[in-house]
Hints:
By secondary structure, the chain is an alpha+beta fold.
Amino acid sequence: xxxxxxxxxxxxxxxxxxxxxxxxxxxxxxxxxxxxxxxxxxxxxxxxxxxxxxxxxxxxxxxxxxxxxxxxxxxxxxxxxxxxxxxxxxxxxxxxxxxxxxxxxxxxxxxxxxxxxxxxxxxxxxxxxxxxxxxxxxxxxxxxxxxx
Length: 148
Ligand SMILES: [Zn+2]
């Protein structure tokens, strides 16, 4: 997995055009579903209640679908009613990056994987305690590892 990440980074480092068909984006297109690609590489949003994980209550770890980093634990997942998987905080040590997103005339905070730059979703300040944060994440950006 570490080798894979290294290759991915080397590939994207060379590419000057994000949307170009350099090796890494071609590889990703083949490996990911079209929804996973649209969400993680083009900052898309899956329709509410359409994803694999919004209603999943199993115990385990949600990982970045692109690079496999641990991002959110099921112990911080809560039912937000939004139709997207929602967490009140990232797991310890998760490489979460947050950026201002001013698309669509709104100011929101975009959440990305700090390791591979995949778009994950947005974070809103209306979550439950103890953090008050609501990480609203696309199922398509996540892979689930069930706890044993
Ligand atoms: Zn990632």
